[in-house]
What we know:
Elements: H1 4-7, E1 11-14, E2 20-23, E3 26-30, E4 35-41, E5 58-61, E6 65-68, E7 72-75
Parallel strand pairs: 1-7
Antiparallel strand pairs: 1-2, 3-4, 4-5, 6-7
Amino acid sequence: MLSTDKLRDKEVINICDGRSIGFVSDIEVNLESGTIEGIVIPAQRRIFRILANQENDLVIKWDKVKTVGEDVILVEMEPY
């Protein structure tokens, strides 16, 4: 079983191009089914985190997650 605490702050790597996408800041959960819908990577923040907002955060759907390792999460996404 995977706890949500184990997902937070892990680095997310895209296996399609080997690039780091960022670090998990939050997760999206379907409360009706009790399943994880996706992981949230915060947008690049600028000066004192005021020039970007949550609307710019990247949500990676859970079906894109291929492996959750000790230190990283591997996802398969088209490079952006």
